[in-house]
Design a protein that fits this description.
The radius of gyration is 21 Å and the shape is globular. By secondary structure, it is an alpha/beta fold. It contains 9 helices and 13 strands. It folds into 2 domains: 4-137, Nucleoside Triphosphate Pyrophosphohydrolase; 144-315, Phosphoglycerate mutase-like (Rossmann fold). Helix 4 (172-187) packs across helix 5. The longest helix has 16 residues, at 172-187. Strand 12 (295-301) and strand 13 (308-315) form a beta hairpin. The chain has helices spanning 46-58, 113-119, 125-137, 172-187, 199-212, 224-229, 233-244, 257-265, 275-287; strands at residues 4-16, 19-27, 32-34, 37-39, 60-76, 82-97, 107-112, 144-150, 192-195, 216-218, 248-252, 295-301, 308-315. 32% of the residues lie in helices and 32% in strands. InterPro entries: His_Pase_superF_clade-1, His_PPase_superfam, NUDIX_hydrolase-like_dom_sf, NUDIX_hydrolase_CS, NUDIX_hydrolase_dom, Nudix_hydrolase_domain. Residues 3-133 form the Nudix hydrolase domain. This is Putative mutator mutT1 protein. Pfam families: His_Phos_1, NUDIX.
Length: 317
């Protein structure tokens, strides 16, 4: 039975004089042109690996956009046995370029769509190129992320000796998950943090806030107590984030999240190809109130009344 090799990568893209260009890498060992990608390290999450591999292979710092079609194919292991390799891809925008290229890559080329199509050495890589091209043509390639986070695992109510439940802290596993969320949120370039004032929510985002030097904004409407008295307040916080259009993360509690996710499901772009799948993902997450420490990424086009969700993905601890 072949073993499965997880890998992740990106299709970096940019517009030059209105012309879509994508970045390919050349690997001298194989003499091929392909997308920047590489194996997921043990314990590493897919989006974190995608950004890391892009930086190592291209020297480019990138933020993830919409997910693209996976690629699954067979490779030969060092022992001569066949292994199945699964690569998850994202479209990515470049935010900086300072790192050195990995030794596996000797050239990075920004190419127009037609030239990229001809230069790619593997037919499977053209599926991601087609998805990027079609997304650009339909106006859904340039997006911004809104990430919904359920607080990480906290000390059990039965074990908490304090009188104020809002002060109940994360346990050891919860603190570890909060630290693990730093590179996940960074992969999407999150710049605004909104949270329930409860300690278990605030402390889920606090490590990223410190690492990114961002202010953490507490909102009572996102707390369980606030939700009990004003259930509409959480949805209003979502509307405000959609109005701003800044890459944002919002952290709340299991009882509050179904309302937030149901609101987001109504903002999925009506004529989107694959709309039913995006709505189903949000509705499924609402039904199970998400997993503690989960980050659900919504990719949004536009702002305010025109804001529409065009893709969504779940990252569980």
């Amino acid at each position: 039975m072949p073993s499965a090799i997880p890998a992740a990568g990106t299709i970096p893209w940019r517009l030059r004089d209105g012309r879509l260009e994508v970045a390919l890498v050349h690997r001298p060992r194989y003499g091929d042109w392909s997308w920047p990608k590489g194996k997921v390290d043990p314990g590493e999450e897919w989006p974190v690996a995608a950004v890391r591999e892009t930086r190592e292979e291209t020297g480019l710092t990138a933020h993830l956009g919409i997910p693209l079609p996976d690629a699954t194919y067979m490779v030969m292991s060092r022992t001569g046995t066949p292994d199945e390799k699964r690569v998850r891809y994202w479209a990515a925008t470049v935010t900086g370029s300072a790192a050195r290229l990995a030794h596996e890559v000797d050239e990075v080329a920004w190419l127009g769509v037609d030239e990229a199509h001809h230069r790619l050495d593997y037919a499977r890589d053209r599926e991601q190129l087609l998805a990027v091209t079609q997304s650009h043509e339909h106006g859904v390639l340039r997006t911004w992320p809104l990430i919904v986070v359920r607080h990480a695992k906290a000390v059990a109510r039965a074990d908490y000796e304090g009188a104020d439940d809002q002060r109940r802290p994360l346990d050891e596993r919860g603190r570890a998950r909060a630290r693990a969320l730093i590179p996940v949120l960074a992969a999407y370039g999150i710049r605004r943090l909104v949270s329930s004032p409860s300690v278990r929510c605030a402390d889920t985002l606090a490590p990223y806030a410190a690492a990114a030097r961002l202010r953490l904004r507490p909102k009572e409407g996102l707390s369980e107590e606030g939700f009990a008295t004003r259930p509409e307040a959480a949805s209003r916080q979502v509307a405000r984030l959609l109005e701003r259009g800044n890459p944002a993360a919002i952290c709340s509690h299991g009882p509050v999240l179904p309302g937030i996710l149901t609101t987001l499901a109504t903002r999925v772009t009506p004529d989107l190809t694959g709309r039913d799948e995006v709505v189903a993902l949000l509705e499924e997450a609402a039904a199970d109130k998400m997993v503690k420490g989960e980050a659900l990424v919504c990719h949004v086009v536009g702002t305010g009344a025109q804001a529409g969700i065009v893709a969504a993905e779940r990252h569980l601890p």
